[in-house]
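User: Round two. Same drill as before: sequence, then structure, for each protein.

Assistant: Same drill it is. First protein:
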Amino acid sequence: MRMSNKMRVILQVFVEGKDLDPVARAIAQIPSVTDVYEITGEADIFVIVETEDVITFRNILKDILTVEGIRSTVSSVVTYVHKHEGQTIG
């Protein structure tokens, strides 16, 4: 299985208040966002972003941060994928 050459970022989103649905729906409308999950733990929403490069991601992150109700985010850039959708890579 061959993965895309796109940059993949895992974004943890921390939401103010308890109403996650409007925040999750707004984030899901952003074209480069491929997945949005409501999760348990410290963060409230888990987002996967696929983009061409770090500059483009910066602009996407600016869009995400304009969503009302977001308190903060933590971004992690994927450096290598070992397994994806049940398939071992490599």
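Second protein:
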Amino acid sequence: MQKKAIRAITNSDYNANTNVLFKALHVLKLTDIYKLYLGKFMFSQLHSTLTTPLLIGNDVLNHNVHQYETRNQHRPHIEYARTKTLQDSFLVGGPQL
């Protein structure tokens, strides 16, 4: 839907490459907007800029899951997600971003 709208606005062919059109119009795709706000949310959670941390506390970092000294010990722990729906959710996608 979004690609059809961009092609209609720019009077492009039905099969024109939309990446160039998005860049020329300085418009973000919906997936890019989602990733942007997810990144802002995760940053505010990890750095406690929100008044009350909603999801991520000290207990979901890697150094609290196991006692090994690793280079990723201060990053959020990523849980295994079996289904595609859970993999695309912000609970699993946020720490992966």
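The chain has a mean pLDDT of 78.

User: Perfect.
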